Amino acid sequence: MNITKRGLILGTTALAVSSVAITGFGLRFSQSQAFFKDSPKELVDEVWQVINGRYVDATFNGEDWREVRKEYLGKEYSDKEQAYEAIREMLKKLNDPYTRFMNPEEFKTMQIDTSGELTGIGIQITKEEETNNIIVISPIEDTPAFSAGIISKDIIRKIDGKTTEGMELNDAVSMIRGTPGSSVDLVIEREGEMMNFTITRAKIEIHPVRARVEQSPDIGKFDYIRLVQFSSNAAAEMKQAILEGEKNNVAGYILDLRSNPGGLLYSSVEIARMFIDEGRIVTTVDRVGEVDAHSANGTALTNKPVVVLVDGGSASASEILSGALQDHKRGIVVGTQTFGKGLVQSVRGLGDGSGMAVTIAKYLTPDGRDINKQGITPDIVYEMSDEEKEVLIQDRLKIGTIDDAQFKKALEILSQQIAQKPN
Question: Is the overall model pTM greater than 0.90, yes or no?
Answer without folding.
Answer: no
